Amino acid sequence: MAELFSAEWMNALRDEWNADPEVKDKLAAIGFNSVITCGFKGEDKPRGVFVVENGECVRAGDYDGTTPDWDMRADRKQWLKWCENGIGMTGLGAAFAMGKLKFLSGDFAAMIKDPRMAGPFVKSFGLMQKLDTE
Asked: Number of folded domains in the chain?
């Protein structure tokens, strides 16, 4: 069992991401490149980093100071709920609207309106369900 956002956990998520054509291939089709970070609300720095080049995660691990394009934050309890149950498009929109999911960088509204990005984004949350998280 890996600690949420630890290097081990982030690398397991990388493996799931790269193995899923609904995420990796769909994002490759639009030339998606991004530095994505995740962490907890109220903390100065994110916990984990996820670097995507042309849809493929090429590096993941502990946050290393890289400037994120997307920095997602939520309470630990909320992240663990999503790891256990996943989240759909409606739930994701509600989490954002209710402040359960915060973006310290990145434009959630623009991304969610683009189905080429929204679908893989929601699917990436589903990948967390496949990880053994503590």
From this structure: 1
**48-53 β-sheet, strand order:** 56-62, 48-53, 34-40, 70-74, 102-105
CATH number at residue 116: 3.30.1050.10
In a domain, 98, yes or no: yes
Predicted TM-score of the model (pTM): 0.94
Report how far residue 119's alpha carbon sits from residue 96's, in angstroms, rounded to the nearest whole number: 16
Print the domain residue range for 24: 7-130
Residue 90 is which amino acid?
T
Residues 47-98 have pLDDT tens digits of 999 999 999 999 999 999 999 999 999 999 999 999 999 888 899 889 999 9
Strands (DSSP E) along 12-133, which ranges?
34-40, 48-53, 56-62, 70-74, 102-105
User: What DSSP state is assigned to residue 25?
Assistant: H
Does 125 reside within a domain?
yes
For residue 37 the two structure tokens come to: 């970070």
Percent of the chain with pLDDT strictly greater than 90: 85
